Amino acid sequence: MEELFNKVLQVNVRCRDCEERKANIRVTIELQLTTSPVHKRDLLVRITDDIDPYFLFNLAISEEDFQSLKVQQGLLIDFASFPQKFIDLLNLCISEQTSDSPRFLLHLSCQSPVLEGPANFSVIETNAFKHLNHLSLRLSQASDKEVKDYLAVCLSSLKAEKHALEMKLKTTEDDLTRQLNYAQQ
Amino acid sequence: MEELFNKVLQVNVRCRDCEERKANIRVTIELQLTTSPVHKRDLLVRITDDIDPYFLFNLAISEEDFQSLKVQQGLLIDFASFPQKFIDLLNLCISEQTSDSPRFLLHLSCQSPVLEGPANFSVIETNAFKHLNHLSLRLSQASDKEVKDYLAVCLSSLKAEKHALEMKLKTTEDDLTRQLNYAQQ
Predict the structure, then answer these.
(1) Nearest to A63 by CA among A44, A84, A40
(2) Which of A110, B8, B49, B63 could bond to A119 as cystine, CB 3.0-4.6 Å?
(3) How is domain B2-142 classified at the CATH fold level?
């Protein structure tokens, strides 16, 4: 598992019959290599919300899936170049985030009145003439089991971070107290 | 929701066809008061494992459930006194944990070869003559959704603890650095 991208981005979220709203969404892209039983590469796209532990949508793109995506969206690149191209688009969105009229925007839209079920995650360029869809991925809402697994991983890394902080607090206290004692002598 | 008990206890775990093993299990007892639509008190018993985020068994005992439990296990107390009596038994087990031949022991047993499905959680007293079953509760293994909800709560409180640590680290550093500067003048 190789993590290629992990950043929080501003996303325009639109559900059926609802006002569009802005949300801060973490986008993670990972490349998963499987060697057994066959050599296989899957690109995993995951979007989460640091505030809402239940928010999790994902998509696994295999090399075969990519061929359909390529035909369907008229992409001109191959599977190997796709991750970097996708990341370039996301970084373009980030660079435009502070602009009053950003040229590149991320959209997350779903058919239901609340954000659930499958959702389309798209990179849209807006020019004076029209909206251009650069890429649109159909993400699935994670099942209870997938959310459970995701939260277990979050919990484990948060525990490690907390432990590291406790260690750092202890060494900081010891260190400065020693220096203080020395200075006061 | 009132938390009545929350401690890690040593439990003897036995599955079908397996050697008995000792495990450190966190036992939480909560009293849940519902006022709407009707006044209702439920006792929630939950066992978890601080190491294994997926380990979660629970049981909700309503006043009606308690009546069956009372008859079935020959209890002589009422619902209101039950939580404290249960806690007394758990504390007895804790006080005997370090003994070579503990008189009170907690047992968790299930019918399947691995710990899954319903499990019996019992307080057993062993005297020279026999094993005495003081209390036996049938816990259910939590569903994916229940584990997901439980992990979301854990994550949220761990985040708060981590944030508090970060604050403490910062004030400790500032405080000691100021004292150090003062002492060095």
Answers:
(1) A40
(2) A110
(3) Dna Repair Protein Xrcc4; Chain: A, domain 1 (2.170.210)
Q: CA B5 to CA B26: how far, in whole Å?
A: 10
Question: Closest residue of B to A145, CA-based?
Answer: B144
Residue of B nearest to A148 (CA): B148
| CB-CB neighbours of A149 under 10 Å | 19
Chain segment A113-139, per-residue pLDDT in tens:
888 889 999 999 988 788 889 999 999
Comparing CB atoms, the residue among A144, A161, A179 nearest residue B148 is A144
Residues of B in contact with A173 (CB under 8 A): 172, 176
Tell me how far the alpha carbon of residue A164 is from its chain's centroid. Answer: 25
Q: Quick check: bond before B37 cis, omega within 30?
A: yes
What distance in Å separates the CA atoms of residue A133 and residue A73, rounded to the nearest whole number? Answer: 9
For A43-52, how does the pLDDT look when each residue is reduced to its tens digit (9 = 90+)?
999 999 999 9
| Predicted local confidence at residue A142, as pLDDT | 96
Instruction: Return the H-helix or E-strand segment holding B64.
Output: helix B63-73
Tens digit of pLDDT per residue, chain B (185 long)? 899 999 999 999 998 888 889 999 999 999 999 888 888 999 999 999 999 999 999 999 999 999 999 999 889 999 999 999 999 999 999 999 988 889 999 999 998 888 888 999 999 998 878 888 999 999 999 999 999 999 999 999 999 999 999 999 999 999 888 888 888 77
Chain A residues whose C-beta is within 8 A of a chain B C-beta are: 53-54, 143-145, 147-148, 151-152, 154-156, 158-159, 161-162, 165-166, 168-169, 172-173, 176-177, 179-180, 183-184
Cα B75 to Cα B41, B83, B122: the distances in Å are: 19, 13, 14
Domain boundaries, chain A: 2-142, 144-185
